[in-house]
Amino acid sequence: MHYVTFRFYAELNDFLPRKARQRDMLHEFHGRASVKDRIEALGVPHPEAELIRVNGCPVDFGYRVRDGDRISVYPHLASVPNPKPLRPPHPRGRFALDQHLAKLAAYLRLLGQDVVHRANWADDELARFAAEDSRVLLSRDRRLLMRRSVVHGGFVHATDPMQQVPEVLHRFGAPETFAPFTRCLACNGLLREAPKNEIAGRLAPDTRRFYERFWRCPGCDRVFWEGSHVRRMRTWVAAWLAHPDVPRLAAIP
Prior knowledge:
Layout: E1 2-8, E2 25-29, H1 35-41, E3 51-54, E4 57-59, E5 70-74, E6 94-97, H2 102-110, E7 114-117, H3 123-132, E8 136-139, H4 142-145, E9 153-155, H5 161-172, E10 192-194, H6 196-199, H7 205-210, E11 214-216, E12 223-224, H8 228-242
Parallel strand pairs: 1-5, 6-7, 6-8, 8-9
Antiparallel strand pairs: 1-2, 3-4, 3-5, 10-11, 11-12
Helix pairs in contact: 2-5
């Protein structure tokens, strides 16, 4: 039997039992184990850890835990330089979302993010796809994020999709990839401007009468125009990009 002391910081405590939060926690285990295995045994998905210190020294996921070690685990929010990164830099503006995050997928596409989402994606297939296609996997399922194939992932804490957007952008936002109203909210395709005469037969009479500019998705063939719903969406985009936690670079077109 071996004993080590763990301390988790900031939002990593959300994954722990209440009695173990914000304090040192004695952890016992048998045999040899990596620090990654011990972190996940306590309920914290490995993509949530950004910096691990053992007895004050940074280590990677492969470190073999020893009896008496004091282990500190920090999340992505920690403003502490990490001389031993746990993974390569995350993909910029590229995401894969599990089946329960459909609204978040649409909202991120509204901001121009490259988002893949399917309604009935098996967990193993999703985890493998995100890694092979160099995407950040977003989920509210901690077990999915614990899969070995996951390299870049994030647990979405908020339950309201409108609040999930700034949470995701705070952690993974790449301002150079923000391009509002350039992607199809349904299929992720890049929109192209369509001459009115080419799609006029598909429009309702009032739409033909009052609107002149239209966009079409080459993927699913949906047609878009700037109606009242778009003006409402612009207020959402402005609020998300002005959020104090979101990195800024892009201007709203």
